[in-house]
Amino acid sequence: MSGELITCGNNWIIIDKLDNVSDLEEIVSEADPRDYSDYTTASGGSFQRYFTPAGWSPDYIPKLPKNWDTVKDTYENVIQKRMIYHAVFPFEWHKLYMTSGWTVTGDKGSYHTPHEHGRDYVSSVIYTEVPEKDPGVIYFVMHSDNYSLLYHPQKRLLHVLPEKGMIIIFPSWLIHGTLPQGEGKRTTVNFDFRGTYHEEYGQFSS
Length: 206
Ligand SMILES: [Fe+2]
What we know:
Mean pLDDT: 87
Structural class: alpha+beta
Shape: globular
CATH class: Mainly Beta
Strand order of the largest sheet: 1-2-10-7-12-5-4
Bound molecules: fe (ii) ion
Number of domains: 1
CATH architecture: Sandwich
């Protein structure tokens, strides 16, 4: 119910499957129509559209989908619950809060170049639509510290084959990318997060 945790040194990812992503399919259909893939890692004919203002483009304010507040609450909980279950939720944190959301749609040949989401702390991807054959592997570079490079060379690159409803949660520093997909449409919904701090730690991030 809370998925699987895979670790390597300080790095971790959680993989789980959601039964129903109709709320996400709905917001995808309402995403701002402007394509920002030229400014991102989405390549090979992908379309990248934002739900929230893009951090690197402060003047860009998209119109939020009508159920945005509910979706935001739902997925803050979905992801926080799984991080707590797998003991990767920092003890200083009180609550996860979403900082950005976007969607990427691709067809045959589209992919993402290797990148990380350094501005935030927790990242996630949820697949709402996946081609039947050759859905395009997502890979994670798990050896981003010396410890794991020395002691876990066999786990350096983790490949995950996407399925509809799959959710992947990972720290934002973790380098990842996707291999070119086959024929058919692949759609992801992506959310990044930070955490508010417990009062006793004397700092608040929102
Ligand atoms: Fe990414």
